[in-house]
Amino acid sequence: MKEYVLKTAKAPVDLSLYEAQLNPAQLQAVTAGPGPHLVIAGAGSGKTRVITYRVAYLIDQGIDPSRILLVTFTNKAAREMLRRVALVSKGDSREVWGGTFHHIGNLILRRHASAVGLTGGYTILDREDAKELLQACVADLGIAVTRHRFPRGDVLQDILSSVINTGRSLMKVLEERYPFFTLFEAEILEIARRYRERKLKDNLVDYDDLLSLWLRLLREHPEALDTYRQRFLHVLCDEYQDTNAIQGEILDLLASGHHNFMVVGDDAQSIFAFRGANYANILRFTERYPDAAVHTLETNYRSTPEVLELANASIAHNVHQHHKTLRAVRSSGPRPALTALADEEEQAAFVAQRILELRDEGIPLHEMAVLYRAHYQSIQLQLELTRRGIPFEIRSGLRFYEQAHVKDILAYLRIVANARDELAWKRAVKLHPGIGNATADEIWRAVAEQSQPIDLEALGAIAPRLQPRARRGFQEFSTLLATLLALPRAPAQMIAAALEGGYREVLKTRYPNWASRVEDLEQLAIFALRYESVEAFLTELSLLGAITGEDVYWDEPRDELLILSSIHQAKGLEWSVVFLIWLVDGWFPSSAALREEGGLEEERRLFYVASTRAKDQLTLCHPQRTTDLRRRELILKPSRFLLEIPEPLYERWHVRVE
After folding, report:
1. 340 Cα distance to chain centroid
2. Quick one: CATH architecture of 402-542?
3. Among 117, 198, 296, 306, which lies 20 to 30 A Cα-Cα from 641?
4. CA-CA distance, 355 to 530, in Å (whole number)?
5. Tens digits of per-residue pLDDT, 136-171?
6. What is d(CA 145, CA 140) in angstroms, rounded to the nearest whole number?
7. Which is the catalytic residue, given 21, 28, 48, 569?
8. How far is the C-alpha of 31 from the C-alpha of 61, rounded, in Å?
9. Which CATH class, in words, describes the domain spanning 15-109+210-297?
10. Domain 308-391+554-654 sits in which CATH superfamily?
11. Which tens digit of pLDDT belongs to each residue from 487-535?
12. Are 15-109+210-297 and 308-391+554-654 in the same CATH fold?
């Protein structure tokens, strides 16, 4: 039967509302005709406004809202966009398909579950459930994880997720991210097979399945692909620069019939390659869609001209990009300040003093942020802020000393300082193979019977009383403890010894981001050099409420807190005043990133993101020297990103100590 569409009369769209709310470049993108469109939305250029008004415009043009797909990276963003659409459009926006990739994938898979071997009532595993199921698969296969440093659940999840989301082989992922696990390739492949079998048998899916099965459905079932190509007459994607290989292919397939495909993003803010984001999706969009119209949004509503001139000058050094120049609508402000500090202590003192001065000038603390490349770079600053009574919060949610790996390493030091520290004993011994809660309790009861100081010979007598699988782990712990007790009571040496005496291997098996955690502990050891005894070091930290993780309460309202954040976690946010610290070559850009293909340009994009968080004032800080674990003074070079910026674009500050 032939289908005939009878079109109803529709009043032309009243563009006056759109013209009143959008600048010319935004209006051009919003009111563009059908076909593929790439919207390069520079920082602070009104990206959300464009995609919101585009959806509203399509509805006002008479497009059935249920035939519009809007994909975002958070459900909160989708809800907010659709709320704004409802305020702008005269039509009904409630039927728009809006949400994250996982949300939309779930809606579609519920309708086609049988096509991918499931039933419609499948259960979605959260990360914790998925980890437990993976560990159950390891047990099913009888893999001796206690005999070898075998990856734990979190790491297995990360490995398998990387394989799925990047489309690379398991061996390639292992070689690039976990080279010390390449010898376990066969076992991990078997675990992956068993994991798939268990999920299929029990009608379960994890988060990655919502994407991979959705893609499989579209690839292997032409009728399903045709259904959704016809269903979604217009496909829109926000934050396109953050899409991975699977997400990019899903969108291409959905838009493959009509090519009514609008993607909005900023290639200069693509900073999540470590999560699998595929920079090529946005960079090569016009190669895949040669007839695509490119709309570049360069009007910035956030920052002063001086901040933008510096950011523009920096990102201009990237070769692989869609070129643009941000232009400010705001009036002029102070030039960014470039400040060379003697060392990290002076850097922390300078930042803390400036924050207090700016607060006295009327800028609230919550309008100020200190940003850094890696979390460990905030160690000294957190102590300085606490000493001065400046309340702060950390975007990660945990202060440096509250993180699990820091508390783990400090547990060893606490045992040396106080042989009766039960919590430290139980935490430390459980880090070793074959020792769980029950065995840790048994070990502690035996230790508690001993007299102080620690009797290593008596400690060795505990091993025969333990279950066979725990003896090796306890022997490993005892050897490390003996090493620590034989050292001078210097905390820096103890931290380094614990790291090299087995804890580095613990990190590798437990944490996907093990390398950054190793960096944290190496820097903690260097920081500890200023303390002569382990007791003094632990006392300093405990007085700050650090080791126990106790909350620190302030008299100020909750929103009157200074923000400390890694640059990655600051993306999408803005503050009146921004301090960038540790702008030192090897730290930022990081030496690890420089070893990766495309790493330098991604690090420069990270610097661009950091700089464009500032609305009014931007201060760039670089310490000039530091100390290594051998107490040798190291001369630090300013970040190459600073050297690339023409001198007229910043003001040098000379810091004099009184």
Report:
1. 29
2. Orthogonal Bundle (1.10)
3. 296
4. 25
5. 999 999 887 766 678 988 999 999 999 999 989 999
6. 12
7. 48
8. 10
9. alpha beta
10. P-loop containing nucleotide triphosphate hydrolases (3.40.50.300)
11. 888 899 999 999 998 899 999 999 998 988 999 999 899 989 988 899 9
12. yes
